[in-house]
Design a protein that fits this description.
Strand content: 25-35%
Order of helices and strands: EHEHEEHEEHEEEEH
CATH topology: 2-enoyl-CoA Hydratase, Chain A, domain 1
Structural class: alpha/beta
Number of helices: 5
Shape: globular
Strand order of the largest sheet: 1-2-6-7-10
CATH superfamily: 2-enoyl-CoA Hydratase, Chain A, domain 1
Oligomer: single chain
Number of domains: 1
């Protein structure tokens, strides 16, 4: 069995993290004792991609993300999303359409058994350049698993917003909905605090693993 499996997740953009990619990760993770997920520099992306990855680690039907517009209180309960057609959701198009239609949506893990099991030791690396749905994924791992969250506090930029070009090279970002963790935690302006503070700088994968052993996050 491989001792550590280290993977960098730089984005939850549907174009870059497809269900086939997550399935390949699941296969690779099966034969390892420890999984290290590097969410540093993660720019965010789609809630559906967060669900794909979170479904490897969390039980079926686990809430991982809520998004609500100003009209959300008109709804008695959220519209539940487990998975979306990837081609229809490029650039979050389908997610935005469903949100504008229902005003309150909740993303939950897929109705399937965790393919890699729950017996793995997990570590999630974070930094101040982990944004948006990257932060949501980190928080759901913190809320529902025993994974150690290691690094620096995330950016705290967790809001659904439209970007408008106003000319002369300037753009403005206008929020249209709030994003909460599966358990309803507000991350906008707050970020995710690590369980263990650490700064890995420009260390490579092997050096980071050595540091995690020295910090007793990993044990030989």
């Amino acid at each position: 069995m491989v001792t550590c499996f280290f993977v960098s997740i730089r984005s939850f953009d549907v174009r870059r993290l497809r269900s086939a990619d997550v399935a390949a990760l699941a296969q690779a993770m099966c034969d390892t004792a420890t999984i290290i997920l590097d969410l540093r520099l993660n720019g965010g992306g789609s809630g559906s991609a967060v669900v794909e990855l979170a479904s490897l680690f969390l039980p079926p039907q686990t809430p991982v993300l809520q998004i609500r517009t100003r009209q959300w209180q008109m709804q008695q309960e959220p519209f539940i999303i487990h998975t979306l057609p990837e081609e229809a959701n490029l650039d979050h198009a389908l997610e935005v359409e469903l949100l504008r239609q229902h005003h309150w949506v909740e993303y939950r893990t897929k109705s399937r058994n965790m393919p890699i099991g729950s017996d793995k030791h997990g570590v999630v690396l974070i930094d101040k350049q982990c944004y948006s749905n990257g932060e949501i994924f980190v928080r759901c791992m913190q809320e529902y698993t025993s994974a150690a969250i290691v690094g620096n506090k995330t950016a705290g930029y967790v809001v659904a917003a439209d970007e408008h070009d106003i000319g002369k090279g300037y753009k403005i970002t206008v929020p249209f909905a709030e994003m909460l963790s599966g358990q309803g935690t507000q991350l906008e302006g707050v970020g995710v605090q690590p369980d263990i503070e650490a700064d890995f700088g420009d260390l490579n994968e092997e050096q980071i693993i050595d540091n995690l052993y020295e910090m007793n996050v990993l044990r030989r």
